[in-house]
Specification:
Layout: E1 5-10, H1 22-25, H2 30-43, E2 47-52, H3 56-66, E3 73-77, H4 86-93, E4 98-103, E5 125-128, H5 133-145
Parallel strand pairs: 1-2, 1-3, 3-4, 4-5
Helix pairs in contact: 2-5, 3-4
Length: 146
């Protein structure tokens, strides 16, 4: 495939990036991350749709829509829903494209409840602890795979 369509989903509280616990999550804003992804995708002729929601149902609705609109892959940072949402896992299980799970921090160096991910049960790859570079690495992997 020469051109792919990627949905990037950011979960709860990621709208506060740059100001919320920058010692953990960094100083870049969500807009900075999305802008870098858009530029990277455009450089390779790919389409990208970046969305953030603090509401689980909105994330699920976006995944359902991706099943029908030609989306080839999903990059998802489910944030706190990583550890709690069987519903997001079920939605991802109904999606036929590739899924890459991204976390800004290394969740395995944090509280023990953050060590389990429901989303990882569906993800084709998981990137954690690289900060915003993790999103770009995920997109790079998808582009390289075609």
């Amino acid at each position: 495939m020469s051109v792919g369509k990627v949905l990037v989903l950011h979960g709860p509280n990621l709208n506060l990036l740059g100001t919320r616990q920058p010692e953990i999550y960094g100083h870049e804003t969500l807009a900075d991350i999305d802008d870098a992804l858009r530029a990277q995708a455009a450089d390779h002729g790919w389409a990208i749709d970046c969305r953030q929601s603090n509401h689980e149902g909105e994330l699920i609705d976006a995944i359902h829509a991706a099943r029908l609109d030609g989306t080839a892959a999903i990059i998802i940072n489910p944030a706190a829903y990583t550890h709690t949402s069987v519903a997001i896992l079920d939605a991802l299980n109904a999606f036929d494209g590739r899924v890459i799970e991204v976390h800004l921090s290394n969740v395995h160096k944090r509280e023990s409840f953050r060590h389990h991910s429901y989303v990882s049960l569906r993800a084709d790859g998981v990137i954690a602890g690289l900060g915003s570079r993790g999103y770009r690495a995920a997109l790079e992997a998808l582009i390289a795979a075609g």
